[in-house]
Amino acid sequence: MRDDETVTGWALAARSGDERAVEQFVRATQLDVRRYVTHLSGDPQATDDLMQDTYVRALRSLPRFEGRSSARTWLLTIARRVVADRIRSHSCRPRLAATDDWQSAAERVQPRGVPGFDEGVALAELLAALVPERREAFVLTQLLGLPYAAAAGVMGCPVGTVRSRVARARETLVALVTDAERAEPGRQPRTLAGAAAGAGAVA
To answer: Low complexity bias located where (predicted)?
Structure first.
């Protein structure tokens, strides 16, 4: 599990221009940022641009980062604004990507050849069926492991709202898995259901 205290220490050290600390901070957080902006934007093809914009803004803002929240929470809040700005600039609501795009995005952000990889790809497909608010809450707490309070800070809503969105997202995902099991009995739904309804993040 990622050590948020260590990552925050790197961010604080990077404020003074410590290039090694900057490199460690980016390396430790880039997978979470990639996953988050991919799922939040619904546009996997824009992921690299969104990541670049996120880190440009973050590195410019580092001198003002005081460590009042974890650096990861602070960075994901910036990433959320970057995605929101992109959506506004295109004057459209968030759209759900095609299944093939979601699968490609999942393959890019997850390691290959490890247990659960196939289930992770399938879960990414299922996440596309969630409304954006529930998908974001689920990704932050269940995939990125943020505590509910930290996720609430990123999303700008009460903790209870995050809990409710996660609970409803789980219900939807489990229902979709159940439907898939009926339609395709050989699709290993039990493992996938476990991923969808698994233990939540730290409260």
So the answer is: 193-203
